[in-house]
Amino acid sequence: MTLNALLEEPGCNKSEIDEFILMGEENRYDAQQRLLRKKRQQLLDAIHTSEKKIGSIDFLLSEIRSAADAK
Question: Which of 14, 18, 15, 10 is CA-nearest to residue 36?
């Protein structure tokens, strides 16, 4: 898998990929790590947002089941 593909997979856009490659060429490995950590945090935030939405759906499903069982 190419570096571009590895960066595209988690959602890096072209400018982020270009910036990452430039950082590597300039031996700015700390900056590369910061960029990757930032992208990782964005992905985790999206997961947590989705988990909250799923929790709301699960709650509603449970309420509907309880109401149906009560009848």
Answer: 10
Predicted TM-score (pTM) of the model is: 0.82
Number of domains within the chain: 1
Phi, psi for 30 (deg, rounded to 5): -65, -40
Domain that holds residue 29: 3-70
Please report the sign of the dihedral spanned by the C-alpha atoms of residue 7, residue 8, residue 10, residue 15: positive
Q: One-letter amino acid identity for 48?
A: H
Structure tokens at 6: 């590895």
Residue 55 to residue 49: CA distance in whole angstroms: 10
Backbone angles phi, psi at 9, to 5 degrees: -55, -45
| pLDDT tens column, 13-69 | 999 999 999 999 999 999 999 999 999 999 999 999 999 999 999 999 999 999 999
